[in-house]
Specification:
The chain is an alpha/beta fold and 656 residues long.
Length: 656
């Protein structure tokens, strides 16, 4: 039985703790433990405080000691929280299971078990655990929220939305539910509602970092980059160690030329030093066999090995790789899969699921697989594992395809590109990596099987030219609209079709209409299409467009390939860095370098000129698919051989 003095001291400590005065609470907890070293409550509460302060190893030690003295279910719950934050996901699961065994009628125990099961990828079991928690307490907002998030991750958005709204109704002050619902419906393109919900979450709980993250993402998707960056910056003030918040600030740089390339580079390097590279540089991996011509083990790391643009451009490499000379292992960081995933699996010698595996464990996995060349396919996009690359698990590391800029990591040796997207002598200074240039193009397009036939240009039946862009509406920022508007002014009967999921947002639509109006083009000239469509229907929409206009400075990639495959020529405005030179590589590879322009005036003149050449435009449309089929852009086997030669050259430079 603790003394009255210790009881009073603990009451004071808990009051400080609950009020957020952690330093005062910690001092009293430690004073209590000096008098009573085996006080289980002081041990576990000090451990909880250490966990809340980010000192997870000490938290685990303290709470584990409390459990040896007096095992209680709430002690196991707090231990699991610390273990989870320390990346010890399986230990956290075991602690949650023990809590449920000890207290099967406590809804919090089942809720925590559900979270632990979700962390290790056992989502169906997690759903059962959350439902048991809710059965014990039907208006348990936290469990309703967690179940909704789990269903959202399983691509069941309607069920997820219902549960998140139930969580909000159960506790109108539960800010996390507002934020999570905002994130979910933002992914569905309902950006106005997403922004409103995230702002409600912040009003309820001004220190909820996730709400600033979700708000910033929605604002970026609406093309409101300054406001989005302000949200990210506010979140970063609250949590300076939140890597994803800082990455979101990096990705916004691709949509504007206002940030000089040197500043963009320096920001990426600063991010890498803070978040991805350990304080002590990792030891150089041991090369097991320095034979320059032996079979090489290649590893690809990506969150997008599913129905995604990255997978479409990776698939030709995997399907055509020389299995006698290269062995491929895929490290999938995705929490979902589909039929594309299954196709990719069949083209790899090994497949590893790493979404629920901590960084250090992934590093050990890659080393155990004896990977020679490890290739990142995500850059700073969502779901990347750059922290793994920072630990240098493979002798040669590269970044490719998924991100149009440097990684900033000194541990990544090469960035794969080509001599048109990154002309020699122009962009080397803006990369922390060496540029490994392929003969253009730097990627290979695999045309979709469901593509409909090319149809006659719509100008024949309309009597006027229709321009179009199916790029993300966020790419249509002020610089893009200032580039496109003069084309429409020069051709007063012409129309412009824009199609993007983001255009479901009234804010996004209004931004674009107002921007065109300020550039002298009325809203009656614009058709803004918001529909999310199956791929075949999406491709058929190109039948409504005569000429596609590329965005600037952030060029299209998949959209440019799709437009050309459907017979629609694309006009691009070349810039000075990779993000604004992708179109140069793609168009040149199919013999359309005459549609590449180097200045705004040239872009306008080329669009007006091509629009005036009806027969030439008709002939170009009719032959463009055949031209692509015979081009280097669609030469899957030839491209894969060039890609493999580049990898082999990098290997030889390492071992010889």
């Amino acid at each position: 039985m603790p003394s009255p003095q210790i009881v009073r001291a603990m009451q004071q400590a808990v009051a400080h703790h609950q009020a957020g005065r952690l330093a005062q609470a910690e001092q009293i907890y430690r004073d209590v433990l000096r008098q009573s070293p085996r006080d289980p409550d002081a041990l576990q509460l000090l451990g909880l405080l250490q966990h809340q302060s980010g000192r997870h190893a000490e938290a685990i030690e303290l709470i584990s000691k409390a459990i040896t003295i007096r095992p209680r279910p709430e002690f196991y719950v707090n231990l699991a929280q610390a273990q989870r934050s320390a990346g010890k996901l399986r230990d956290a699961l075991a602690s949650c299971q023990r809590a449920v065994q000890m207290a099967p009628n406590i809804p919090e125990a089942w809720n925590n078990l559900g979270s632990a099961l979700k962390d290790v990828g056992r989502r169906e079991e997690a759903i059962d655990a959350f439902r048991k928690s809710i059965a014990l307490r039907p208006k348990y907002a936290v469990a309703l929220n967690n179940l909704g998030n789990t269903l959202a991750a399983m691509n069941r958005p309607e069920e997820a939305e219902t549960l998140l709204r139930q969580a909000m109704a159960a506790d109108p002050k539960y800010a996390e539910a507002y934020s999570n619902l905002g994130h979910l419906i933002g992914r569905l393109g309902r950006l106005d509602e997403s922004i409103s919900l995230c702002r409600q979450a912040i009003a309820i709980r001004p220190n909820l970092v996730a709400a600033y993250t979700n708000l910033g993402v929605a604002l970026h998707l609406e093309g409101r980059f300054d406001e989005g960056n302000a949200a990210f910056a506010q979140g970063a003030k609250l949590d300076p160690n939140h890597a994803r918040l800082h990455e979101n600030l990096l990705t916004g740089c691709s949509h504007t030329t206002r940030v000089p390339p040197r500043e963009v580079h320096d920001a990426h390097v600063a991010w890498a030093r803070k978040f991805a590279e350990p304080a002590t540089p990792p030891a150089e991996p041991v090369i097991r066999d320095r034979d320059p011509d032996r079979r090489l083990r290649i590893g690809f790391v990506s969150p997008d090995l599913k129905r995604h643009s990255v997978a479409y451009f990776l698939q030709p490499i995997l399907e055509h790789h020389d299995r006698e000379k290269f062995e491929v292992t895929a490290y999938s960081n995705s929490d979902s899969s589909d039929e594309v995933t299954e196709q990719l699996k069949r083209s790899c010698e090994r497949w590893r699921e790493i979404a629920t595996v901590g960084d250090e464990q992934v590093v050990e996995m890659i080393r155990a697989d004896a990977i020679d060349i490890l290739i990142d396919l995500a850059g700073h996009t969502t779901g990347n594992r750059l922290a793994v690359f920072g630990r240098k698990p493979a002798p040669i590391q590269m970044t490719y395809l998924g991100y149009p800029n440097t990684s900033g990591l000194s541990a990544i040796d090469y960035r794969i590109t080509d001599d048109l997207a990154d002309p020699p002598g122009t962009t080397e200074a803006f990369h922390s990596e060496r540029l490994l240039r392929l003969p253009a193009p730097f990627l290979c397009y695999q045309p979709p099987d469901v593509a409909p036939d090319v149809v006659d240009p719509p100008m024949v039946r309309n009597g006027y030219i229709t321009f179009g862009s199916f790029n993300k509406s966020a790419k249509a920022g002020p610089e893009t609209i200032a580039l496109w508007a003069p084309v429409l002014r020069k051709l007063p009967t012409s129309k412009l079709i824009m199609k993007s999921r983001g255009l479901a947002s009234e804010g996004s639509r209004r931004r674009i209409i107002d921007a065109f109006a300020s550039n002298g083009v009325g809203g009656d000239r614009l058709q803004l299409i918001e529909a999310e469509q199956p791929l075949a229907a999406h491709l058929a929409m190109y039948g409504k467009i005569d000429i596609a206009l590329d965005t600037f400075p952030y060029h299209g990639t998949t959209t440019t390939c799709e437009a050309m495959w459907m017979g629609v020529p694309v006009i691009t405005r070349a810039g000075q860095t990779h993000v604004s030179r992708v179109g140069v590589s793609l168009l040149s590879s199919v013999g359309l370098s005459d549609l590449v322009t180097d200045a705004d005036e040239q872009f306008v003149a080329k669009a007006v000129s091509l629009a005036s050449k009806g027969q030439e435009l008709t002939d170009l449309r009719a032959g463009l698919r055949g031209r692509m089929q015979s081009s280097t852009l669609c030469d899957q086997s030839g491209f894969t051989r060039r890609f493999e030669r580049a990898l082999r050259a990098a290997w030889k430079s390492k071992v010889l």
